[in-house]
Amino acid sequence: MKDTPIPYEIVEQKIKESNLPKIGKASIREVKRLINEIEQASGKKFIRMEMGIPGLPAVAIGLEAQKKALDNGVAALYPDIEGIPELKREMSRFCKNFLDIDVKPASCIPTVGSMQAGFATFLTFQRLHKEKDTTLFIDPGFPVQKQQHRILGAKFETFDVYDFRGDKLKDKLESYLIKGNIHSIIYSNPNNPSWICFTEKELRIIGELAKKYDAIVIEDLAYFGMDFRKDISIPGQAPYQATVAKYTDKYVLFISSSKAFSYAGERLGVMVLSDTLFQGKYPDLKPYFGTDNLGHAIVYGSVYALSSGTSHSAQYAMAAILKACNEGIYNFVEGVVDYRDKAHVMKKMFTDNGFKIVYDKDEDQVLSDGFYFTISYPGMNGEELIEELLYYGISAISLAITGSQRLEGLRACVSLVSKSQFPELQERLIAFAKNHPLK
Ligand SMILES: Cc1ncc(COP(=O)(O)O)c(C=O)c1O
Questions:
Q1: DSSP string over 255-289
Q2: Which residue has its alpha carbon closest to ligand 1 atom 7?
Q3: Exposure string over 136-169, b if 16+ CB within 10 A, otherwise e
Q4: What is the gyration radius of the CA atoms in the chain, in angstroms?
């Protein structure tokens, strides 16, 4: 039995009691529960890096606008399913100012978080073409989106992009698209869990191939603006958030309020369809949605059936935040640089103690520091590592649940770790390295 920061026997007992066959295969919520129990039994706090939840206060401009909207009585009223005009207008401006793309307000549809944007999109795209029935995930990815596919009985294929960066992406992607069954391609950028960001070359490859094979690109921008290597925060001025929208006219963007504006609790996202797609006609939709128009089917078919739109007052919050961003009054990138600064210090602590960063480069460029990073420890697979780290009071999730082939890797999230915990993290990592000497 080793001398570990969290008493060995307590961790061992709680793992046994959890009845989880493999900690490394457990879902994020299961890991969270186990850690809560270990914390309670040991009286020691973990360095919690398993959950991807914001660790910053909600943007105050949003709170003010939301309170005002509530005082004005919106809680009693159903919002329009297509969203309140203020939010649609400000999102259209936001897309121009920070992505340098033109989308009409009508094509910007508020949803119950990006989570629902995904569900509504997958649900609808499954019915787009009789002959195309499959989504392609460029992994690693956000596990719930695959769960949404399973629940819907929707087909998907996936590959880990780790070995297919840069020019290599073209042949790999084409090997799927050429089969003719792919209706859409999905990825997040910056990527949850790996924090890779596609380069312009890669976005061009994705966009051009999607065009060639008539596939739609779903770009999940949950971490908008958080590729901190370039500052996209000045409205209407380059550089902009990188996007596939520059390379194809059939795209859907998910823009979430959760991380960029620390507004996760109010469950508000916006699904932005390209105007071409919003106005697009797909006859195979008709039996399910009573219309062949995609925009109409998504709004009055899927979003209506799922939740009849989304929180009325939160829409006012996001409209006000976006307006402040558009007018240069609120700098949303500055609002979240804390994640970059923490990642910078934490990554160094891990690598100084023998850990490796698994996804470490975008082609020849070192990754940005940000919300997540990935780690491995020589000689251990991810399942072993996640379990072993529990004895050191450090929690993370396994990359194995994200579609990554890097089975040695874990995802670490910086958001809930406070800077005051850094000395403790340092001590625990030193203890880990001491007990696991590298050859
Ligand atoms: C890639 C990705 N997409 C979507 C979401 C969910 O966003 P929302 O809170 O807007 O539903 C998350 C949240 O962690 C995410 O990481």
A1: EESTTTSS-GGG-EEEEEE-HHHHT-B-GGGHHHH
A2: 114
A3: bbbbbbbbebbebbeeeebebebbbbbebbeeeb
A4: 22
Q: How far is CA 167 from CA 163, 181, 182, 289, in A?
A: 11, 23, 21, 40
Residue at token pair 């399913």:
81
Spans in the chain with pLDDT lower than 50:
none
In this structure, are residues 149 and 135 in contact, taking their beta carbons and an 8 Å threshold? yes
57 upstream amide cis, omega within 30 of 0: no
CATH fold, domain 8-55+336-435, is Aspartate Aminotransferase, domain 1 (3.90.1150)
Centre of ligand 1 from the C-alpha of residue 337, in Å: 19
Contact 220 CB / ligand 1 (< 6 Å): yes
Ligand 1, atom 14, residue with closest C-alpha: 52
Q: Is 110 in the pocket of ligand 1 (CB under 6 A)?
A: no
Collapsing DSSP to helix, strand or coil, 147 comes out as helix
Q: Give start and end residues of each alpha helix (H) in 23-135.
A: 28-42, 60-71, 85-99, 113-125
397-414 per-position pLDDT tens digit:
999 889 999 999 999 999
Domain boundaries, the chain: 8-55+336-435, 60-326
- Could you say which architecture CATH assigns to the domain 60-326? 3-Layer(aba) Sandwich (3.40)
Q: Which atom of ligand 1 is nearest to the CA of 268?
A: 10
Angle between helix axes 8-18 and 28-42 (nearest 10 degrees) is 140
Question: pTM of the entire structure?
Answer: 0.96
Looking at residue 219, its pLDDT comes to 98
Cis amide prior to 143 (ω within 30 degrees): no
Given ligand 1 and candidates 189, 192, 198, which is best to mutate, with the most ligand atoms within 8 Å of its CB?
192
The Å distance, Cα 269 to ligand 1 centre, comes to 9
pLDDT, position 1: 62
Q: Kindly state if the Cβ of 397 falls inside 6 Å of ligand 1.
A: no
Nearest-CA residue for atom 12 of ligand 1 = 222
